[in-house]
Specification:
single chain, mainly beta, about 0% helix
Length: about 120
């Protein structure tokens, strides 16, 4: 079992940066792919980024590619999301999630096993 807790959200100006962190506890953290998702009011939860077990492979949604960077530190059982050049449309609750098994369906939130409580990101214009 894995427990996840996000932090680092807040209010930032458009064009600014924010670093989100996710602390994990439980067995075999390094065996899980870790993803970030976000959900804005009135919208469905959407994929943001995912990182492989080793951290060697990443994938991003087109909407954040080139602006966001996902990383993980298995020795500390943490995963981070560096968000640069933030836009008002990035405003959402951001969730950290863990996925066991293979890389298939890594952009599908319904295939993830564990979720954090979310952290609010608000970008002002």
């Amino acid at each position: 079992q894995v427990q996840l807790v996000e932090s680092g959200g807040g209010l930032v100006q458009a064009g600014g940066s924010l670093r989100l962190s996710c602390a994990a506890s439980g067995r075999t953290f390094s065996r899980y792919r870790m993803g970030w998702f976000r959900q804005a009011p009135g919208k469905e939860r959407e994929f943001v980024a995912v990182i492989s077990w080793s951290g060697g492979t990443t994938y991003y949604a087109d909407s954040v590619k080139g602006r966001f960077t996902i990383s993980r530190d298995n020795t500390k059982s943490t995963v981070s999301l560096q968000a640069n050049s933030l836009k008002p449309e990035d405003t959402a609750v951001y969730y950290c999630a863990a996925k066991s098994g293979g890389s298939y369906g890594a952009n599908n939130p319904r295939l993830y096993d564990y979720w954090g409580q979310g952290t609010q990101v608000t970008v002002s214009s």
